[in-house]
Design goal:
Helices cover 27% and strands 31% of the residues. It contains seven helices and eleven strands. It has helices at 18-24, 30-42, 60-67, 80-92, 130-142, 157-161, 219-229, and strands spanning 51-54, 73-77, 98-101, 114-119, 144-155, 167-171, 174-183, 188-198, 205-215, 232-238, 251-257.
Length: 262
C-alpha cells in the first residue's frame, strides 16, 4: 500500500484551478518580472521581436508581451484547460497570439525560431522528471534563433524546503488553504490545495481540491543541463535582483543565450 503522505502521490494539477486562476493570481507581478527580464536582454545588446512563452498558463504574460509590441507571440502549456482560457481571452481582445497544448519534452513547432524565450512563475519546477527537463531545454534551444536569449525563473530548493506553498488566504469570493510537504531525498514538494469559491449571485460555495508537485533542482544541475543543451553565457540572479542567489534565495532568475551562427 502506498504512503498517503508520499510526494509521489498522483497529482491532478490544473484540473479545476484554471477557471479561477486569473482571479487567484491577480497580485502576481508579471509586469515587474518581465521588466527585469527585458533589462537583462537589453544589457546583452539584444533587440528581440519574436517571443515564445514557455509554459504560458492562461496567457497573462503573453498578453503583456503582445501589448508591448512583440510579434509574433507564441505560447504553449501542458494543461489543456489553461490553454483553452488563454485562447478565449486572446480572441476576445483580438490579440493575434498563437497558443498550443504541448509538453516541453515533446515540443515541436516546426521551423519556428524565436528571438526571445521566456518562462515565469516557477513553471519549470513543475517538470519533476529530470530527464524530461533536460530534453525540454534541448528542444527550446532548437526553437531559438541564433543569438536568442532565454530568460526564466525557478523556485530555489530553500523555498520548497521551507514551506513557501503553505498558506491560507481569502480574497473576495476565493478562499484557499495550501499545505506543502517536502521530501528531502527526492527533492519533491507536494502541495495539497483546498479551494472554496463563493458564487456572488447565489452565495453558494463550491469546494475542490488539487495536488501539485514541484521538484527542487540545484543551480549546478541547471547550469550543467543548460550547457549540455547548447546554451551559453549563463547568469543567475536571486529573487529578480541584480546579485547572484545565495542559500536563502526563494527564486532564481536565469539568463542565457544561443550563440550566433548556430
Amino acid at each position: 500500500m502506498s504512503d498517503p503522505s508520499s510526494p509521489l502521490k498522483e497529482a491532478n494539477q490544473y484540473d479545476s484551478l484554471p477557471a479561477i486562476y486569473d482571479a487567484l493570481m491577480g497580485g502576481v507581478p508579471y509586469s515587474v518580472w518581465l521588466a527585469r527580464m527585458e533589462r537583462a536582454v537589453r544589457e546583452r545588446d539584444k533587440s528581440p521581436r519574436s517571443v515564445l512563452d514557455v509554459a504560458c498558463g492562461t496567457g497573462s504574460l503573453s498578453e503583456i508581451l503582445w501589448r508591448r509590441g512583440y510579434r509574433p507571440v507564441v505560447g504553449f502549456d501542458i494543461a489543456p484547460k489553461m490553454i483553452q482560457l488563454a485562447q478565449t481571452k486572446a480572441q476576445a481582445r483580438s490579440y493575434g497570439i498563437s497558443y498550443s497544448v504541448m509538453d516541453i519534452a515533446e515540443l515541436e513547432l516546426g521551423e519556428q525560431q524565436f528571438d526571445w524565450l521566456v518562462s515565469v512563475f516557477d513553471s519549470l519546477n513543475y517538470v519533476t522528471d529530470p530527464i524530461k527537463l533536460r530534453e525540454g531545454l534541448r528542444r527550446l534551444f532548437a526553437h531559438a534563433a541564433p543569438g536568442a536569449v532565454f530568460t526564466f525563473d525557478m523556485n530555489g530548493v530553500y523555498a520548497l524546503r521551507h514551506g513557501l506553498f503553505t498558506q491560507h488566504e481569502k480574497n473576495g469570493p476565493i478562499e484557499h488553504d495550501w499545505k506543502a510537504h517536502w521530501d528531502e531525498d527526492q527533492r519533491l514538494c507536494r502541495v495539497e490545495m483546498d479551494f472554496w469559491v463563493t458564487d456572488p449571485h447565489t452565495s453558494t460555495r463550491r469546494y475542490f481540491h488539487e495536488t501539485h508537485l514541484q521538484r527542487g533542482y540545484t543551480l549546478a544541475e541547471m547550469k550543467t543541463w543548460l550547457t549540455e543543451a547548447g546554451w551559453t553565457q549563463i547568469e543567475v540572479f536571486g529573487n529578480y535582483g541584480d546579485r547572484a542567489p545565495n542559500s536563502r534565495s526563494d527564486r532564481w532568475l536565469f539568463v542565457c543565450e544561443k550563440p550566433e551562427g548556430i
